[in-house]
Design a protein that fits this description.
Two copies of one chain form a homodimer. Chain A is an alpha/beta fold. The first copy, chain A, is built from seven helices and nine strands, in the order βαββαβαββαβαααββ. At the A-B interface, helix 3, helix 5 and helix 6 of A face helix 3, helix 5 and helix 6 of B.
Chain lengths: 211, 211
């Protein structure tokens, strides 16, 4: 299955500004993108990066992944690639906890319904598999609610995917805790190499930077 | 399977203090506990509430659920009930997004390994199924990491459960967004009746209280 992976290549991860400089945010965002693409390849799917600007994916196995530059808003860029007869997957690029197994549960849900949706924390949508030709995405606002309504309005049945790994898109400093705890790929390695570690205090765990 | 459900009955949900008065926190915590117990009954398991003080569960089907008062620290109270030959489940009581299906994935994982663990956001552990007689819990600090280490040290194999619904224990104001979006039980209904609704602004979705 073709899986679109939208990527903000111009100013990625601005909400991590309190912790990471601009070049670090770019490197970390790229590490997460590489984790997502690797997991897709490992599960036998065909990722296509839909980026706001050219992206250098590296010179390893990911070199062959196609990158399409599309400067239109995210939802427009994605919707222009829907409407065909084959199922299309969409997976956000900032999943620092992604595993092939988690992608497998999204794909399995997509095989059982016209639209499968993996919610992101805070009302977002982090993954979809769309088999209904009239369904369109809208990533603005409370997108998970909008996607459920959109599916209903075109008569598509929906399956929600219950996955912490897919729900955890990494936007804010507290999300880095999850990457350090549960990430298994380059993003977690990048954070550790940059000196981040868990800080154990009262309440939930935080992060420290020691380097 | 017997499933222990620890419940802080004395001063529940203190981190929701900015949004809820003490009596509201108690009512909301009880609604979440009732959701967890109902989902356990629906999946055919035998919940036992292990509470710091007596709890009135209501006069419906949940009336028959046993409540044991144990004033010892949480981990001690739980560990005194482990070590037998039958698998024992442990599920935290503040899962406002719980569904029978989510519990099913924890139980399925428990059937495949000596210890199944459902991580909570921020390093916590929200659910376990323990089949190894020497495994003990420790809910202090980064408990998910400690539980993985504890399993290794007694030679127990582990399976991690990837569930957003089980990962979302409700402790802080931002967690209420998830209950409003994805909760299907009494906790979500309680929040709505108390006047909470989603607030859509920049970035992630927040909450408003209108009543």
């Amino acid at each position: 299955m073709q899986v679109l992976v939208p990527f903000e290549a111009t100013r990625p991860k601005t909400r991590l500004d309190p912790l990471l400089a601009a070049d670090e945010r770019a490197a970390f965002a790229r590490a997460m993108l590489r984790d997502v693409l690797s997991a897709l390849l490992e599960t036998g799917h065909d990722p296509v990066v839909v980026a706001t600007a050219p992206v250098d994916l590296g010179d390893d196995v990911l070199e062959g992944v196609p990158v399409t530059v599309d400067e239109r808003p995210l939802s427009t860029a994605v919707n222009s690639r829907l409407g065909g007869t084959d199922p299309v997957g969409i997976l956000v690029s900032d999943l620092g906890l992604v595993t092939p197994r988690a992608i497998g549960s999204l794909v399995a849900a997509g095989a059982e319904a016209d639209v499968a949706v993996a919610p992101g924390r805070g009302g977002g949508t982090n993954g979809l598999v769309v088999s209904h030709p009239e369904f369109r995405v809208d990533f603005h606002g409370v997108s998970i609610r909008d996607h459920l309504n959109a599916a209903e309005s075109v008569g598509a049945d929906v399956r929600l995917v219950d996955s912490m790994r897919l729900a955890t898109d990494v936007d804010e400093p507290s999300d880095l805790v999850e990457v350090l705890l549960h990430g298994e790929g380059e993003a977690a390695a990048w954070l550790r190499a940059a000196g981040f570690e868990l800080a154990v205090g009262d309440g939930r765990v935080g992060i420290d930077r020691t380097v």
